Amino acid sequence: MLTDSGLAGKAVIVTGGSRGIGRAVVEIFSTEGANVTFLFRENTAAAAEVIATGRAAGRPITAEQVEVCDAQGCTETVERVAERCGHIDVHVTGHPRLRR
Questions:
Q1: What would the pLDDT profile of 25-73 be if each residue is shown by its tens digit?
Q2: What's the DSSP call for residue 19?
Q3: Among 9, 71, 89, 92, which lies 20 to 30 A Cα-Cα from 27?
Q4: 15, 41 in Cβ contact below 8 A?
């Protein structure tokens, strides 16, 4: 028997979600029903693939291109996500410069 993860309807931001572990995190959260926005820096092809795969499965996934070391860019991105979703419940980061 599966238990309810409590993630359905939650707004989630994943830093670095277009590849590797970040992509896996995006997929897990979106499979659980979260509205996921992931951040990526350069690889638009990888980001587009994550979005296409998620949407084909009926999962709400959005991407925002931003350099996480750019404070103003990050602030604007978070504000856009909060405006679109109404709130932000979870932030997951694997970026080494943000894990302090």
A1: 999 999 999 999 999 999 999 999 999 999 999 998 999 999 988 999 9
A2: S
A3: 71
A4: no
Task: Answer for the pair 26, 33: CB distance below 8 angstroms, yes or no.
Answer: no
SS (H, E, C) 21-38: HHHHHHHHHHHCCCEEEE
- CA distance readout (Å), 5 to 21, 30, 34: 20, 12, 10
SS3 for 67?
Answer: coil
| Structure tokens, 65 | 């291109």
Alpha carbons 16 and 20: distance in angstroms, whole number: 9
- 48 neighbors 23 (Cβ within 8 angstroms): no
- Quick: pLDDT tens for 67-92: 988 999 999 999 999 999 999 999 99
CA 52, distance to chain mean position in Å, is 14
Residue 2 C-beta-side C-alpha neighbours within 13 Å: 4
Question: If pLDDT is split at 50, 70 and 90, which confidence band does 97 have?
Answer: low
